[in-house]
Structures are given as C-alpha cells and as structure tokens.
C-alpha cells in the first residue's frame, strides 16, 4: 500500500456521486458516444435500474472503505438518465473556485443541481462559481472533466477536440482558472473522434494513463507525452483495445487508512483493471493502490468510474468556528450527511 507523505493537488480526498434511481443509457448521447451500448434485449428496465443502483452503491462503499469522503445525492428524476455522471457539469478547484459547464445533450442540462452547489458552499470554502452554461443556446459546449483531463499540478488542460469540447470555451476556462490549454485530435481506428478526453487519459500525481496511439498527429503525440513527463511522472501507454475496456477512465484520489494515514488510490472499474497488463499494474502501484469495482450496467451508458466521480478540490470549512450556522446547515456538515450512509435525499 502506498502511503502519501503529503497532500497532492491532483488527488482529491472527497468526491460527489449521484445515485440515479432511474438510470438507463441515454438515447440522446448515443450518436457520438462510440462506447455506449444498448441494454441487452429482453432485460426489463426495472432490472437494469436495480443493477445500476447496486453498482453505484458498490462504488460509494469501495471509496469509503478506502478512506475517501463521499457525498452521495439521490436522484429519482426519470428525465435524467445520465445524472450518474456529474463530472460533466461541475468541477472544483483549489482556491475556492467552482465551474459549471454547458452540456451537449438537452436532456442532460437539468442535471445541474443547486443542492450540490449549496452543499459545497456549506461544507467547503467556495469563493467563486463560474457558470458557462449560458453558452448552450449558441451550440457551444465543454463537458467538464469529461471533455478535459486536468493536470492540477502543472496546470494543463488536456482536451481531445470534439463537439462536446469547444476550444473557445476551453480557452475561456483556462484563462479564468489558470490552466494551459493543450488541445489535440484523438480518434479510434475507424477514424471516429473520441467523444470525451477522460476515456483515453487519466492523470495522477506520479503516473498518467493515456492512449497516445489514438492521437494521430505524431508531433502532437510527442508534445503531449513530453508535457506529461516534465515533472518526472511515469506514463503508462494504453492501447485502443484497453480504452474500449475503460482502462483510461480512472481517477486518482487521496484516501486514508484505518489508522488515519493518507494513501493514494487509483479508482477504476473491474473491467478496466482486468484489461491491464501486469507491468502496467506494477507501474500504477508504484505510487497508488488500485481500487476497482465491477459496474457493467453503468458502463452500458458509455462511461465508467471516472465519469461517475466529481472530485472536490476545495478546503473544508471549520464547523466549530462558524457559530452563525443554523441547526439545519449543521445537519449537512457531517462526513455522512442526512442519512446513515451519507446520502442527501433529493426532495
């Protein structure tokens, strides 16, 4: 097990998950998401939803067991099939910055939730919320940390160009939040553009997983590799076949041991974990422990564990020095708020 001697800006110690009770693969996103699949023929919707809920709960429990602080919000709304993927509409950043993003599919735009923002403001120090969602009527989109894979240490926003990642919004985000944009083309072997950068790349503190072979421009491929390794980070190169198993859709988090010591984990699906070669696993485990969960139902929607997680890169509030907080606010300022297992109930 890898113990963290310091807190990494790359690996958040808290996350937001959405427990989507009416999950189904979203028909509105199937056209450009080559990773999305249909529910098996004959499988009842109730069975699909029950399986997805069990998988969501398993991810939340695995992260809690690893010592990660988990904020779970219930969602009973049947019109939000993709709400299990909150990282597309929100990201948080050191210094109290929060971004809210414009979404490509119209039926995803009401995934944005005021109660999530209110929880962040009550439990963490939020200074500024920058909302780009007003760009949607102009057909301009940037789907959060799905569209961008952020190096929070070197301040680089790696972005595969797509209809869901407009480079003009990318430049605005980078100016507002202090990142360097690094945009590139990424395609599969059939020439289909990658719909989200986070399916082909994951950046950790000391290791990065990326399918460089899916960047066709050799010069740009070399630049991406060089930028990733400038601070000594190890690059684990993934194949397109591994990307189709969601090996790139992972995220580094900072947990704690039962004794309270910090540790880094790499959260991914069991399917992704199984696709890795032994030497790739060894390279990852030089700096963090792999925590994997089997989520085959959720992966039908074209995303995996990384897509399910919105990391919280904000400083926590000190509740004991906030005497003006009401009892109602204090009730949601616990590690496991409202319900015993840490869920906020969506009224």
From TrEMBL:
<dbReference type="Pfam" id="PF19420">
    <property type="entry name" value="DDAH_eukar"/>
</dbReference>
<protein>
    <submittedName>
        <fullName>Arginine deiminase-related protein</fullName>
    </submittedName>
</protein>
<dbReference type="InterPro" id="IPR014541">
    <property type="entry name" value="Amdntrnsf_FN0238"/>
</dbReference>
């Amino acid at each position: 097990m890898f113990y963290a001697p310091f807190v990494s800006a790359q690996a958040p110690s808290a996350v937001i998950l959405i427990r989507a009770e009416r999950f189904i693969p979203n028909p509105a996103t199937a056209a450009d998401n080559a990773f999305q699949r249909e529910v098996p023929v004959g499988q009842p919707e109730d069975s699909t939803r029950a399986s997805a809920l069990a998988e969501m709960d398993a991810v939340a429990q695995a992260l809690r067991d690893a010592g990660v602080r988990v904020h779970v919000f219930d969602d009973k709304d049947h019109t939000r099939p993709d709400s299990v993927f909150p990282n597309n509409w929100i990201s948080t950043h050191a210094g109290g910055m929060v971004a809210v993003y414009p979404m490509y599919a119209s039926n995803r735009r009401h995934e944005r939730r005021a109660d999530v923002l209110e929880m962040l403001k009550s439990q963490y120090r939020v200074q500024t919320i920058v909302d780009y969602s007003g760009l949607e009527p102009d057909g301009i989109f940037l789907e959060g940390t799905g569209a961008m894979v952020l190096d929070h240490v070197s301040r680089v926003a790696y972005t595969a160009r797509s209809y869901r990642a407009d480079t003009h919004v990318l430049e605005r985000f980078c100016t507002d939040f202090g990142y360097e944009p690094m945009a590139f083309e990424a395609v599969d072997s059939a020439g289909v553009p990658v719909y989200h950068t986070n399916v082909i790349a994951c950046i950790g503190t000391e290791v990065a997983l990326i399918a460089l072979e899916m960047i066709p421009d050799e010069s740009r491929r070399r630049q991406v590799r060089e930028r990733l390794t400038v601070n000594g980070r190890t690059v684990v190169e993934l194949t397109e076949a591994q990307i189709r198993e969601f090996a790139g859709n992972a995220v580094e988090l900072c947990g704690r041991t039962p004794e309270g010591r910090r540790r880094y984990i790499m959260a991914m699906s069991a399917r992704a974990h199984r696709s890795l070669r032994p030497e790739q696993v060894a390279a990852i485990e030089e700096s963090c422990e792999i925590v994997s969960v089997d989520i085959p139902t959720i992966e039908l929607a074209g995303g995996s564990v990384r897509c399910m997680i919105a990391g919280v890169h904000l400083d926590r509030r000190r509740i004991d020095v906030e005497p003006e907080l009401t009892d109602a606010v204090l009730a949601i300022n616990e590690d496991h708020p409202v319900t015993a297992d840490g869920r906020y109930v969506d009224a």
